Amino acid sequence: MLGLKTWLALRSRGVLGINQRNGDLVLKYNARHLYPLVDDKLITKERAMASGMRVPELYGVVSTEQGIKDLGAMLRPHADFVIKPAQGAGGDGVLVINDRFEGLYRTSGGKLLSLDDLEFHISSILSGIYSLGGHRDCAIIEYRVKPDPVFSAISFEGVPDIRIIVLRGYPVMAMLRLPTRQSHGKANLHQGAIGVGVDLATGITVGGTWHNLKIQRHPDTANPVSGVQLPYWDEFMQMASTCYELTGLGYLGVDLVLDEAQGPMILELNARPGLNIQIANDAGLMGRCRDVEQELAMRAPRVWGITPRKRVAWCKQRFAVTDQ
Ligand SMILES: Nc1ncnc2c1ncn2[C@@H]1O[C@H](COP(=O)(O)OP(=O)(O)O)[C@@H](O)[C@H]1O
Ligand SMILES: [Mg+2]
């Protein structure tokens, strides 16, 4: 749990609590009927591809128990891949396979699994144990993103992702999430990944948080996590901003990854993004969201003409970290 002192300090800087996030942002800006666009990763992927945005390539989908018998054939052309529940969250049920060894599959944590093990895992995914609401689900098999070397000094296995919070198309806060030994190659904070704040103006990292503690260095590599320039920063910001037009959701957490060969990609979207990003940035979301609301109120009723490029430029200037 977050220490009372840290929490009080953040409150004084306009930190957003869970009730306020739900009432003032999620319920206000996100129409319920649009949730499936982000709660189902298969739909998100199709949408993003249809509008020309890059996503990890889909290798196949298993949606029924009978379909599981085709898994071996589906995986044959691929030495590495990722299996995940279409409606999962928090990294649960995500299995990253890095390579093969003697007919077995090696996970990013180094465990060797048989085809039977993978089939069993898919059967569990179908049963819904990893999924929002516990309903029956589908298993997605997709391209394994290869992390860009820029992250090798500050992450342990797996792929870091970049979370950007977007209010009505305005990117208001960003965080780089770094896998650790404990998170088994996943970039989810609840699995033990680190969250590192990012200066929106430059894409340079500031200090980090791990298990709600403030940290300066990666626990596995001991390298400093701040002062790292994220490549393609403008492209990441533009992609995040465009997800407003893509989904119609006014309050979004956009998760992006950087593949060493294919560049920036959308990994997934979230309609109820977590609040730890505020600790990573040592800044509150409330004030930034109010700033955007005021800007939009001032420009009303001509807000539809504001392009992602203009929104990004406005946020970079408005939310720049000045004391670096
Ligand atoms: N295609 C992929 N390639 C490499 N790593 C992945 C891939 N998909 C997911 N991961 C890893 O697993 C984590 C969780 O996956 P994600 O798709 O974000 O689902 P969730 O909704 O459970 O967070 C990611 O943050 C990333 O570290
Ligand atoms: Mg995720």
Your description of this structure?
This protein is an alpha+beta fold and 324 residues long. The protein folds into two domains: 4-53 and 147-318, D-amino Acid Aminotransferase, Chain A, domain 1 (2-Layer Sandwich); 58-142, Dna Ligase, domain 1 (2-Layer Sandwich). The protein has helices spanning 4-11, 18-29, 36-39, 41-50, 71-75, 115-127, 233-247, 277-281, 285-299, 308-318; strands at residues 58-62, 81-85, 95-101, 104-107, 112-113, 139-142, 161-167, 170-178, 194-198, 205-210, 213-215, 251-259, 263-270. The strands form two sheets. A seven-stranded antiparallel β-sheet has the order 11-10-9-8-7-12-13. A six-stranded antiparallel β-sheet has the order 1-6-2-3-4-5, sandwiched between helices. A hairpin with a 2-residue loop joins β10 and β11. α7 crosses α10 (308-318). It is globular, with a radius of gyration of 20 Å. The mean pLDDT is 92. Bound molecules: adenosine-5'-diphosphate (ADP) and magnesium ion.
Q: Assign the CATH topology of the largest domain.
A: D-amino Acid Aminotransferase, Chain A, domain 1
Percent in strands: 15-25%
Strand order of the largest sheet: 11-10-9-8-7-12-13
* Bound heterogens, unique: adenosine-5'-diphosphate, magnesium ion
CATH class wording of the largest domain: Alpha Beta
Spatial gap, N to C terminus = 29 Å
Domain module count: 2
Largest sheet: 7 strands, antiparallel
Q: Mean of the pLDDT scores?
A: 92
Helix run count? 10
Q: How many E strands?
A: 13
Radius of gyration: 20 Å
Percent of residues in helices: 25-40%
Question: What order do the helices and strands come in, and which of them pair?
Answer:
Elements: H1 4-11, H2 18-29, H3 36-39, H4 41-50, E1 58-62, H5 71-75, E2 81-85, E3 95-101, E4 104-107, E5 112-113, H6 115-127, E6 139-142, E7 161-167, E8 170-178, E9 194-198, E10 205-210, E11 213-215, H7 233-247, E12 251-259, E13 263-270, H8 277-281, H9 285-299, H10 308-318
Antiparallel strand pairs: 1-6, 2-3, 2-6, 3-4, 4-5, 7-8, 7-12, 8-9, 9-10, 10-11, 12-13
Helix pairs in contact: 7-10
The structure holds adenosine-5'-diphosphate and magnesium ion.
